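Practice set, problem 2.
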Amino acid sequence: MAPNGATSHALSYRAPYQSTVNTMPKLTLLLAIIAAILCGCSPHPSIDPTPDERRIVSLAPSLTEILFAIGASNQLVGRTDVCDTPPAATNIAIVGGFGRPSIDTLALTRPTHIWWVDIEDRELPAMFTRLGWQGERFACKRLADIPTAIEKLGQHTDCTPAATQLAATLRAGIAAREAATLADTPRPTVLVVVWWTPLMTCGRESFIGDIITLAGGRLITEEVERDYFTVSDEWALRQNPDTIICLDYTPPGESLKRLRNTTGWCSLNAVKEGRVYNHLDANVLYRPGPRVLEAVDSVRALLDSHANK
């Protein structure tokens, strides 16, 4: 068990993906359902529409990126307010926040399919089914899950050739980087900070943990068989990590400046030697999608820059 409590995989995603769209009040639910029926957006869930008829809503930035990468963007009619890559995605209607859609806004898009990575209201999938919307979760908790999810999305969108090629490219890239890390000795120890208050990090059962390992680092939490959880400051300080990577969206250099003036933290080797980083693109590292190798390489370059000094 991890020290000082734990948090869910869903929360670990919601922290970085702070939404600017509030969930609509439940009082509007009945009107939303009526609107869905009157708009004729309730096809029988057992009937799979053709590509021209398919109307997909993505509730996760990683899924939106994959759909664009495999050539299925023409089937996409709804996205979250944090689905911003590629730039063309911003032309698609917003239906809510990450994993937090507005039902009445969803109804206006007349969806046939709604896909998510995680969802805040656990009752929504059953509601989607009642409304005739085919819902499905594509959970990519680990690095190896991403190519499989891409292939599945390709099958669901009739974009199998492009999805197969993208998945093969990612698998080959992952294998090549795994081979390269075999020669890495010793590996620098890394503390990943997902959130500071409380101090949230990741273990070896996480997608981000896989990125750090593939980049040649060693998580100070590698013995913890969990994904995302909280730890005490005291525990983190005792580990004295070589490197601290902050993914909390603070401005570059801000975390190092603050830690140098914080009791306990200022004595860590990583802080004294300036190996505290928050300049990495958290939107790349947090999204288990087509840019995962870019995420690995950015961490690798960071770790190598100090190893070669």
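Problem 2, part (b): a different protein.
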Amino acid sequence: MNFNQLEWFCAAYRTHSFAKAAEQTYVSRQAFGKAIKTLEDELGVELFVRDESGAHPTEAADDIFPFAWRCLKNMQAIRQTAAMADGRRPVITIAIADGVLESLPDGFFETMEKDIPWVEIHVEKHFYMRCTELLEAGRVEFAIVPGPLKTEGAERVALADEPVYLVFSRSMLDVEPESFRIDQLRGSTVFAVGKGDLSDLGLSELAARCGVDVCTNGQYNDYELILSKVRAGQGVCMAPESVRRRIDGKDLVFVPSPDPGLRWRIDFVCIGRSCTEAERAVMDYIRGYADSKE
């Protein structure tokens, strides 16, 4: 039995899926299944019952998991202690997109640093398209961006999922939220964040489905500037719940999206590849955070 087998067994036990566990540990599905079978042969017990719905832990796996998990954590602690004693704190860089911090709890990164003190966390703030470029180029280890991200081979962990609102100034349209109709936006300017891959949180598409013609403006990369344009009555935009909570909305109208399927989702993203110990520690923290929210 080796460290990888322990790690892979624990991943399969927690996910109830060889496919998900293999993705999390960055090995092929075939190699993962072979390693678990080797471990079962070595221990002389069946650990998982495989069927179309996943890999279900047996009673033997239930008994073994607490000891395997403890061994795994002890081995990680040994490596982490050695790194700290030698003054070699590994650096992990996380690119975060504009606007995502408001959707995360206060002290999110401070708590992460306390939980994994042997890792030096660097956080860089960029426009969301720049975050994806840095991630794909290997310039940063992780990114926290609005999802879903169109990056091939990316693994995502959902950190936040909020309802969204149509936002406009009362000087543009003096109507109460409960009286609003989507056709009242006919001919209006819809502000989207950024050029090229326009992001208006689905408002233009919603208007098109309802047969309402709007004009999409994607010339601004800064969301605060867009909000100032909306306040001035120059158009409409979409905003997540976290924005609605933090801004003074006396002169603005917030209408819940007519399509409840439109959401503001924040994803923690990495590109599938072999991971360092520090990267795995960060991923474990993120998965634990996501699990605690469910």
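Answer key, part (b): The mean pLDDT is 86. Residues 91-160+265-293 form a domain with the D-Maltodextrin-Binding Protein; domain 2 fold (CATH 3.40.190.10).
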